[in-house]
Write a structure and sequence with these properties.
The chain is α+β, with helices and mostly antiparallel strands and about 130 residues long. Among the domains are: about 30 residues, no CATH class; about 40 residues. Helices cover about 60% and strands about 15% of the residues. It has three helices and three strands. The protein has a three-stranded antiparallel sheet, with no helix packed on it. A hairpin with a 5-residue loop joins strand 1 and strand 2. Helix 1 packs across helix 3 and helix 2 packs antiparallel against helix 3. The longest helix has about 45 residues. The chain is rod-shaped.
Length: about 130
């Protein structure tokens, strides 16, 4: 073994606890005592803890992705409404914008968004 490897257990004693379970007590190289009652139960507990931690991490990642999608949607909306508020130099672009605004309050959000996107792309193509 290399010099950096520590001795894991200096003393191990096996005994029965008050319920009759076989226990082992280990004294590691730093003098800490570790009590193991039921190794299979401890492994199951640790696996469940790991699964819970993994599920929480996945939920947090999912939430972060959802927040990023919401932020992207808000950025696109900001770009649309900035275009609506601009003082366009081109008369045809101003006419398209004014036509959109004329029916803006009676159309749905998605219809307005699609119409603005179409008007923006028409201006880019011209």
């Amino acid at each position: 073994m290399s010099g950096s490897t520590k001795a894991v257990a200096q003393r191990i004693s096996v005994f029965a606890d008050s319920r009759g379970n076989t226990c082992s007590e280990e004294d590691d190289s730093e003098g800490r005592y570790v009590l193991f009652t039921d190794h299979a139960a401890e492994i199951a507990r640790l696996r469940a803890e790991l699964e819970n931690a993994a599920a929480a991490a996945l939920a947090n990642m999912s939430l972060a992705c959802e927040k990023e999608r919401e932020a992207d949607a808000l950025r696109v909306d900001a770009m649309r409404y900035r275009w609506l508020c601009e003082d366009h130099a081109d008369a045809a672009t101003r006419r398209r914008r004014n036509d959109l605004l004329e029916y803006f309050r009676v159309r749905s959000y998605s219809t307005n968004s699609t119409a603005i996107d179409a008007a923006i792309s028409m201006g880019a193509d011209a």
